[in-house]
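User: Predict the complex with fe (ii) ion.
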Amino acid sequence: MNVLKLKAVSEENPNETVKRETVDLGNGSDVVYIQRLIPSDQSWKWFHYLDKHIPWTRPTIRVFGKSFLQPRDTCYVATPGLTELTYSGYQPHAYSWDDYPPLKDMLDAVHKALPGSSFNSLLLNRYNGGNDYVGWHSDDEKLYGPTPEIASLTFGCDRDFVLKKKPCKKSCDGSDEPASKRLKKGSHDADQHTFRLRHGSLLVMRGYTQRDWIHSVPKRAKAEATRINLTFRRVF
Ligand SMILES: O=C(O)CCC(=O)C(=O)O
Ligand SMILES: [Fe+2]
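Assistant: Here is the predicted structure with fe (ii) ion placed in the model:
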């Protein structure tokens, strides 16, 4: 697949770096957002490849003891021999990177943007319009360790990605004020952040983001087009 485009940009403008924003969420959690990591034409090529070739499924999952059809399509890819992933009572089949070679080019592009990273698993999600969504959750499964770096690459329709601070039993800021008292004061703006995830963008959650925050991609009546999202993770 064509990753030459990425190279060409940096060769033409060796001093030009891709713009990245870091949002410090406090207490050792932060998020990095790179709005234009993958050029648009390359992103569309990858979008169409993924849409057509990935063996998408829509599994039944269990949430709070009830069975639901997951409100989006999914697929899982992992290096052989890793601990298996289970979420919401569902254990996806782990496909191999070799089954879908362009995934390795996407992985390379993400590794290049995040020096020192080494992802070995990938969860893919496809949202077929604004009724598809992912509800509030954190990716805090044990197999990712206490401070996972999770890199989220988006193709297709723009959607909002919302991060919200978990209510904590004891104050998260170290004071002894109980959560119930603090919640009565209303939540602060700093407790919620929305990122408009664009075609070709990369969002990275780091540090204690999974321990202290939840995230979602809410339903959006106006989002009609398909969105494909890839979250790269390292299983320890
Ligand atoms: O689609 C997204 O942007 C997020 C997906 C997600 O949170 C997940 O797969 O755990
Ligand atoms: Fe997630």
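Residues 33 and 203 are 4 Å apart (CA to CA).
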